[in-house]
Amino acid sequence: MRSTLLRALTAPVVAVLALVSLPATSGAATGPTAGCEELADLAIAADALGLPASGGRVTGTKSVPASGAGAEAIGAYCQVDAELLPVDPEAPNIEMRVALPVEWNGRAMMFGWGRL
Using alpha carbons only, what angle is made at residue 51 by residues 40 and 83, rounded to the nearest 5 degrees? Predict the structure, then answer.
């Protein structure tokens, strides 16, 4: 049961990462803000989620510049807020937030909580 729940929670995050991953851009005219803004109002097809769902949509984006130095350094990223729409229209939407690095190597790691 635990692995089923973990897969159910991981699938939407991976699907959103794959659908909205930002190409690495540089320069003032095509910097991270331009790529991040392109994701606003993006529709996510139901079959891309790999779960029983009615699809999803990006509800907001925000370009966050790099900050810190050394071990405290955080690279520039695009904060993406999204909603996953359940099959049951009476059920609440699943809200999620993903930080997509501007320079991404295509890998993802997800941490979960302890015991269920």
Answer: 25
